Amino acid sequence: MIRAEDLQVTFNAGTVMETRALQGLSTEIAAGEFVTVIGSNGAGKSTLLNCLTGEVAPSAGRIVIDGIDVTGWAAPRRAALVARVFQDPLAGTCEDLTIEENLALAAARGTRRGLDKALTAARRGEFRDRIARLGLNLENRLGDRMGLLSGGQRQAVSLVMATLRPTKILLLDEHTAALDPRMQAFVLDLTRDLVAAEQLTTLMVTHSMRQALSLGTRSLMLHEGKVVLDVAGEERSRLEVGDLMALFAQVRGEELDSDSLLLS
Ligand SMILES: Nc1ncnc2c1ncn2[C@@H]1O[C@H](COP(=O)(O)OP(=O)(O)OP(=O)(O)O)[C@@H](O)[C@H]1O
Fold first, then answer.
1. What is the dihedral of CA 143, 103, 199, 219, to 10 degrees?
2. In this predicted complex, what is the ipTM?
3. Ligand 1: does its nearest atom lie under 6 Å from the Cβ of 43?
């Protein structure tokens, strides 16, 4: 369970650059819930994820995970609870390390174990199994540098890395945005499977209205650092991409044009 209570984040406070990224954002997400998060540029989506990982400290408000107030916990302390996959396939992995070494680092996340201890023979077998399950023929390339993989292959490996250690929360920050449609579909299917198998509480930020409605069970729309729409169940299943686009435009005080529908 995640509870965000009245989160406030202001960057460059008191200067001409002051930005109020979160302005009293509150929401509660049940354990195992898969929530998609939409909102225009600058709405505060990544800042919310950064608050959950501990990379950004809110100036006010609280974050409670499974009943524990983690607001004051630094990012390394939260690493055992929260895993994240970024938009940029390069962001969450080390391209100069091999696939296997990247997996070993992920397996050691939130522990004090070094790379050598994390790369035992048993671990190697587990890594091979997990990577083989992707069906991308990468299990015989575990010694290849991560930098040699395509963007989609890297995102698939990043998802495996994120879920290698038991974690409670999975944060996906537009993790398919940089991929071609075929790889996008592959990584989304993999996401669905992993989230269901591990029963992860998941927040997926996306700019695609289609993805926002087709994945997960609930959608949040952020605007100016607050939740302005929160739909689930019947209400959400009745929504179509056009409805969501219209709501999106309405929140931003804009007219909905057919070009934006085509791009959704
Ligand atoms: N580290 C930072 N320093 C200064 N301003 C920041 C920082 N991070 C975010 N901001 C600003 O805070 C606001 C919210 O940013 P955020 O990245 O959370 O938006 P977003 O909804 O994820 O947008 P996008 O869809 O463009 O990624 C923006 O105006 C952004 O420029």
1. -90
2. 0.97
3. yes
Tokens 């195992």 sit at which residue? 32
Residue range 213-232: mean pLDDT, rounded: 96
In a domain, 223, yes or no: yes
Q: Whose CA is nearest to atom 7 of ligand 1?
A: 11
3-state secondary structure 99-168: HHHHHHHHHCCCCCCCHHHHCCHHHHHHHHHHHHCCCCCCCCCCCCEHHHCCHHHHHHHHHHHHCCCCCC
Q: Is 47 in the pocket of ligand 1 (CB under 6 A)?
A: yes
Mean pLDDT of the chain: 91
Report yes or no on whether pTM surpasses 0.95: no
Residue nearest to atom 25 of ligand 1 (CA): 41
Residue nearest (by alpha carbon) to ligand 1 atom 27: 41
105 close to ligand 1 (CB < 6 Angstrom): no
| 102 within domain boundaries | no
Domain that holds residue 213: 2-97+152-263
Is the pLDDT at 185 greater than 80? The verdict is yes
Q: CATH no. for residue 221?
A: 3.40.50.300
